[in-house]
Amino acid sequence: MSVLIWAALLSSVTCSSADISASAWGRQHCVSGYCVTLNEGEVTVEAGLCVVIPCSFRTGDGFTPKHLAWYKCEVSEPRCGNPIMIFHTNNSIKVQSGFKGRVSFLEPDLSQNNCSIFINKLKQSDSGSYHLRVIGELNGKPDGFSFSPRVTVYVKGLKLKPTVMIPTLTEGQQATLTCTAPGLCSGSVPEITWTWRGAGGTESYITGNSTDFKTENLTAFTQSPVSTLIFNPSAKHHNTNVTCMISFTGETITEETSTLNVNYYRKPQITGRTVIKEGDVLNLTCSVESFPPALIVWKKLSTNPNLHSGTYLYNDTGSATLTIPNVTAQHSGQYICTAKHLNTTVTSYVSVTVTYLRQPLIIGNTTVKEGDVLNLTCSVDSILQLLLCGKT
């Protein structure tokens, strides 16, 4: 691991020592030729994630390092009188059980002088101060050196939430939802669960594909698990909630809920009386169930497409009413409701009949001679009315 990569993770802090100098790794603390460089500041992280402790070291003349060990003490212990071993490069050495398998050494080659570790699947009980001990030989005899500078880690409750990405959803078109967990160290794979809450509060689990990872920074040790959910959206999914829940080790859970908006439409539905009397009011309503709301336009199929001045021509709320007061026979005919939804146009037709009755008209010679034939014709201009005249 290069110094340039780790330098991005470090910040300058102040420490007290007989020999302290600045370096690209933070602050260097030296005693009798033994030096350690690490961030002695406070690091605050969230439960379930991980923490990286960048570190480099140098030993005195005649000392050959064989192993490295990391210890944890309570923050309240200024001299770390009761440390617990959390990591040892010799796997046969027993470490504190709560840390076993959660602490990793980033550089197994001690000749690189890299003592950096990362602690995975953090728990709030991991809060404390951490310091390094180098074990080896001094002039051929077993020896070791513990460095006094410590890194203080505070683990707080998890507040970070996953990021849910939802593309444009259209009924009948397959879509992919993506849930990205908060950043954590490689090797820590949480359980990612998708749930869908439908109308009436009904909740069901949805199967997702949780296999991919994306790298968060150049160290390649901090990654984010990504779960993808592939499904076919329909109108029943519109305005419902989908939740991505991340379950880390130690019962640490975080989740994010998003509302689904699905583009869909249905065929226009026309309601209202289609047979009315002359002089009455024609009221026809065209409704379209859709998202987003469709733009509705009424038209009359005739040589004169212009409707009455009182006509309500269009509405973009998914419903439009055509109103014609004091209708006449000329308003009979076919009407069309056209609904434009995004790039799609759908139509419905309805036939309107206006019934009317005119004064009967009698045609014929009403003055004739006795013995001649009387011919009278009675005619009525009407639609759907009985003939209101008789033969004399």
Strand content: over 45%
State Rg.
Answer: 42 Å
**The CATH H-level homologous superfamily of the largest domain:** Immunoglobulins
Low-confidence stretches: 1-24, 215-219, 307-312, 385-392
User: Quick one: biggest sheet?
Assistant: 6 strands, mixed
Structural class: mainly beta
Task: Give the number of helices.
Answer: 1
- The overall pLDDT average reads 79
By CATH, the architecture of the largest domain is named Sandwich
Question: How far do the termini sit from each other?
Answer: 118 Å
Shape: rod-shaped
Would you count the extended β strands for me? Answer: 35
Q: What helical percentage do the residues reach?
A: under 10%
Number of domains: 4
Give the CATH level 1 class of the largest domain.
Mainly Beta
Q: In the CATH scheme, what's the topology name of the largest domain? A: Immunoglobulin-like
